[in-house]
Specification:
alpha/beta
């Protein structure tokens, strides 16, 4: 299958994207986000607040080793980390249904993400409350995944996969 080794992955060019997990509780969701991040060569995952960190058996169960290839860090305070990203030139997007949110896949989202240039971060909230209000207030914009069913939320790992894929296509021009 000609897959990269972990060492080759670490040396390879990355998608200029930081994924921020804000108090994500499920270890399986965390592992799944690692696996998606590996699939699209995401640059970094920031595990914030109560979000668990590797090594952990339950994270590994869904990450399948991606926790060893994808760069990650832990931060006690999500808001502090987001402020640091912004101070370092990142445009930060919360993935959340909110007043004024832009729908992923539509032209407004493409324009917002393209304006971001090289430094983009997306924040995903916990499974019950979403992205914390304090963190939302720091974000440049809100991205909403269009949905037409009876529910208006997705599992955080599913939402991350959709958003990372859309950003991957946009940044690599594979639309």
């Amino acid at each position: 299958m000609q897959r990269m080794s972990v060492e080759e992955f670490r040396k390879a060019e990355k998608l200029p994207l930081t994924v921020v997990l804000d108090n994500v509780r499920s270890l399986n969701n965390i592992g799944s986000v690692f696996r998606t991040a590996d699939a699209f060569r995401v640059d970094h995952i920031a595990l914030c607040g109560i979000t668990a960190t590797p090594p952990h058996r339950e994270i590994h169960k869904t990450a399948l080793g991606a926790e060893d290839s994808v760069a990650w860090s832990h931060h006690d305070d999500t808001a502090h980390y987001v402020r640091n990203l912004k101070d370092n030139g990142y445009r930060v997007f919360a993935v959340e249904i909110a007043h004024g949110s832009i729908k992923l896949g539509e032209e407004d989202a493409r324009i917002a993400l393209q304006r971001a240039g090289e430094k983009v971060a997306v924040v995903f909230g916990n499974e019950i409350d979403g992205v914390a209000e304090e963190v939302m207030a720091l974000c440049d914009a809100f991205i909403e995944i269009p949905q037409s069913g009876t529910k208006h939320s997705l599992n955080v790992s599913c939402a991350a996969a959709i958003v990372i894929w859309e950003i991957y296509k946009l940044i690599t021009h594979k639309t």
